Amino acid sequence: MNLLYGSIMEFNLLLSFSEIAVKALPIIIAVLFFGLIIFIHELGHFIFAKAFGVKVNEFALGMGPTILKKQGKETKYALRLFPIGGFVSMEGEDEASDDSRAYCNQKAWKRMIIISAGAVMNLILGVVVCFCLVCSEDLVGTNQILQFYEGSVSSSSLKEGDKIVRIDGKRVFSDYDISFLMQRNATGHYDFIVERDGEKIELEDVPFAKRTMGNFSYSPDCSISSVSAKLKKVGFEDGDIITSVNGVETPDDKTLIAQIQADEDYVYDFTVKRGGEELSFEQITLQTATVFDFIILGEDKNILNVTKNAFGYAFSMGRMVYLSLFDLLSGQYGLNELTGAVGTISVITDIAEESVATTDWSQLFMLMAMITINIGLFNLLPVPALDGGHLFFMFVELIIRRPIPQKYVSWIHAAGLVLLLGLMAVITFSDIWKLISGVGFY
Q: For 213-248, how does the pLDDT look when each residue is reduced to its tens digit (9 = 90+)?
């Protein structure tokens, strides 16, 4: 009896460990995934610093307290506790040094190569991942329309065989561009330039159908759950029961959806029941997405179109970084929609969990390409404390033909670092708040 009990306990213990391992695997993948991108970036700095004979004091992956370290002949190699960054510490990087091998005593062009090598390595990794993604597909995407779905709206202007050249004035370099550029415009109407029968044609105000997306989930009795952050901000809560839309009663989910689809402006007056109370919400704009109503032509793979598409995908992702930054500065996106390290790892974990369950890793690698290209380009921005800020001062040095006093450069970078850390703190707080409450920090 005791032997049987012991065997059951051992089985339950093994089962518990198995369940923990299954749940922990996506988190481990996310940490390794993020660590690899940071490692590649810092490796770029390290390789070229060593190649130019610069003294490297430490090469660390992660931030915070050291958990593992190994002292080389000259460089200490360290693994730190928090997997949210890394660094290469070079002699004379942030202060003056008399050492002839110090970073600050190298010629400007050498320092420029060393400081930009991290971002370049991230961009190279992005191209390599895109190449692997394109190779994994059955066909290579193009910018040509193959056919339209039944009930298509855009076929009133676009035609089968059209090659899409520009959308809203932006050049289309890959099929990835088509979806991204159309997502930037919430109106459902777009300006196209297409190549048709060898001639470029301008098509203005091409219409597409829209549908609501990501606002809430609903049950047959019209009770709602998974309410979006923006709807929670105006007062909606999980469990609310929608009783009317635009003054029309909604006794069931079919009526609810019919009423939502009947309004082409996607602006509604809702009445909901919460407990024994009835609440009204007026002029609520629901989030929408454009319905892509055509299919893009796919080509058989060869080394030429695979390579072309890999670079096209990478370029499209890179342009998305800068266009998204412009959208942020212009007010199209709010601070709440920025994501920091915590939010990024959370997203990676979710996609990794789905990838483990479905054994489809394409979305995870697509995310890797996007993040590594994002990090590479973001680091090249001429902002103090970023690699691009250092490059800016080196360009100035080349123009004026003398180095800028180190103390002034250090002050400016220190001020920039304080601002960046402040922004990171706000974004991290927002990430954590969204994880806890499901509502963004506004």
A: 778 888 888 998 888 877 888 889 889 999 999 999
Q: What is the pLDDT of residues 371-426, one digit of tens each?
A: 899 888 888 888 887 888 888 888 888 888 887 777 777 777 777 667 766 666 66
DSSP letters along 362-408, please? HHHHHHHHHHHHHHHHHHTSS-TTSHHHHHHHHHHHHHHTSPPPHHH
Q: Which CATH architecture has domain 140-204+291-300?
A: Roll (2.30)
DSSP assignments along 90-139, one per residue: ETTSSS----TTSGGGS-HHHHHHHHHHHHHHHHHHHHHHHHHHHHHSSS
What is the DSSP secondary structure assignment for residue 282, as one 8-state letter?
E
Rg (CA), the chain: 27
* Residue 319: other Cβ atoms inside 10 A: 18
CB atoms within 10 A of CB 118: 26
CB 236 within 8 A of CB 227: yes
Q: Which bin fits 92, alpha (ψ -120 to 50), beta or left (φ > 0)?
A: left
Look-up of token digits 């019209």:
222
Euclidean distance between CA atoms 225 and 240, whole angstroms: 8
Can you tell me the distance from the alpha carbon of 246 to that of 136, in angstroms, rounded to the nearest whole number? Answer: 48
Q: What is the pTM of this model?
A: 0.73
Domain spans of the chain, in order of start: 18-137+301-442, 140-204+291-300, 211-287
CA atoms lying within 13 Å on the CB side of residue 107: 3
Q: Identify the residue whose tokens are 């790892």.
A: 345
Give the right CATH number for 211-287 from 3.90.226.10, 3.40.50.720, 3.40.1390.20, 2.30.42.60. 2.30.42.60
Question: Around Cβ 171, how many Cβ atoms within 10 Å?
Answer: 13
Q: Looking up tokens 């103090």, which residue turns up?
A: 384
- Give the number of other CB atoms < 10 A from CB of residue 204: 10
Tokens of 69: 């370290």
Q: Where on the phi/psi map is residue 8: left (φ > 0), alpha (ψ -120 to 50), or beta? A: alpha
Domains 140-204+291-300 and 211-287 share a fold: yes
d(CA 122, CA 120): 5
Strand 267-274 vs strand 277-285: parallel, antiparallel, or unpaired?
antiparallel
